[in-house]
């Protein structure tokens, strides 16, 4: 299953300017990514875990060129994404999809769900209207939504339903790489299992590769082949999922593993 | 003892389709100093129940039946102004999606300070100090008070919501999946903070979550919702260790183990076929006479 890397990031650096001082008049620069390097093998899943604020979502956005980097480069199938023309990058977007952490903020409130999920197919000229509708419908069903939901607007859904709409929108394009930012954090355990199995099935069917950002180590154990642990903008540990669970090297990783809630109480 | 919150027969429908119950005949009580967790499948009406208690249902939805009493006072008959005074002062709420309730054009310090100046009349230095203290308590450096919501990470935004909701040390906190964006270490810090308020202020908590590890750690009572209805309601020990309703049993069967080794398994709906149609009456029936 592990083959050559499909996505490689080399020494990514990203700084933000943050307001500081009493009235927010001063500012200083803050390094959210500090020489981060990762490599995603084709057909595999790389999990990124780490504390809130450690730079995971920043990494996700930088990998997909949704945020400009200060330095470093991202290679997709060997090509540096930053050197692609904007037309070529738009083309590649079909293959590089993102599931956003904040589902509601990423869904256009004026579009119906059927339109939101079909939009990418339309932009990339995939299929005719009937085929697009059929593909959207099939994908919505796979994430546990129904045909009637296509006619509804984002605010008519629950938090977990919106999260699944974001997943359907990314997967319907049959991309090569999907960067998922906390994709199952709002889902009940049953739907969560359903979505994780769906991601695995699609990986089998279409040789998809995932960068899977999650703070839930129970979930990571199920889905990941490899794990990267981030702490304050740096990668502090990386390796095969089994190795990290069996013998975490960094105190920070050990602490993460030990604080899983209910570990002692064990609910059912 | 007067319960802190008493919800009786709460029913919510879309105005456009009043026949469809999104929340159907929901009843439960919450005592001061206690935590009731609400669990249940995605779309089962957990958030709508919380919003109905707060009087914050969207205009497309309508509460058709049910009473909501807080500290003995009926909330459904209060006017908008009286309700506003209670919200933020006596009842705090953490919404499920932080970005929908944070104002993108105001700094987070300003937003945390708002309930403090409106309800407690804090000004100037005292206000700034309190804002800094709250940020610190949720693990955000106080210097970040001048940041805007979109300059924070997902988990930091969620913690800003938490700081806002507890700013006035409310008697009751309604928390809708408040820690979904937090890693376990930060989550543990937040749960400790809430527990401290619970002990020190005798705060009661209505806590919506899908994480059974959290339920086991913090709940006194558990409400299980399925398709708009309460299918099981009991002490945490009863519900987790001796579940009665087939939905609860099926749900618990797919809880991942702490080690993440158990095979993934979506819920098995086989039991649903053996049930009579899921009308409120039938579910009540199956509750009193477990299958
Ligand atoms: N636009 C911005 N301006 C200034 N600082 C920012 C901006 N965006 C993010 N940050 C800061 O950069 C750091 C990393 O943020 P990021 O969103 O990548 O964290 P994360 O690991 O995804 O956290 P979480 O698990 O809470 O979502 C945080 O401290 C955040 O406050
Ligand atoms: N404005 C609305 N109009 C019509 N239906 C709505 C509206 N808001 C919510 N719903 C529906 O009501 C049901 C209950 O929604 P609610 O947000 O309470 O679910 P939930 O239990 O909080 O789920 P989750 O765990 O996914 O957040 C859902 O099926 C949702 O689609
Ligand atoms: Mg994030
Ligand atoms: Mg909800």
TrEMBL record, chain B:
Descriptive protein name: ABC transporter ATP-binding protein
Molecular function terms, GO-annotated: ATP binding; ATP hydrolysis activity
Entry annotated with the keyword Coiled coil: no
Membrane topology: Peripheral membrane protein
SMART domains noted in UniProt: AAA
GO biological process: peptide transport; transmembrane transport
Source organism per UniProt: Pseudomethylobacillus aquaticus
InterPro entries, per the entry: AAA+_ATPase, ABC_Ni/Peptide_Import, ABC_transporter-like_ATP-bd, ABC_transporter-like_CS, Oligopep_ABC_C, P-loop_NTPase
Gene3D superfamilies associated with the record: P-loop containing nucleotide triphosphate hydrolases (3.40.50.300)
Family: Belongs to the ABC transporter superfamily.
Pfam family name, one: oligo_HPY
Source species, domain of life: Bacteria
Principal cellular location given in the protein's record: membrane
A GO-annotated cellular component: plasma membrane
This protein's UniProt keywords: ATP-binding, Cell inner membrane, Cell membrane, Membrane, Nucleotide-binding, Translocase, Transport
Start and end residues of each ABC transporter domain: 5-252
Cell compartment(s), UniProt: Cell inner membrane
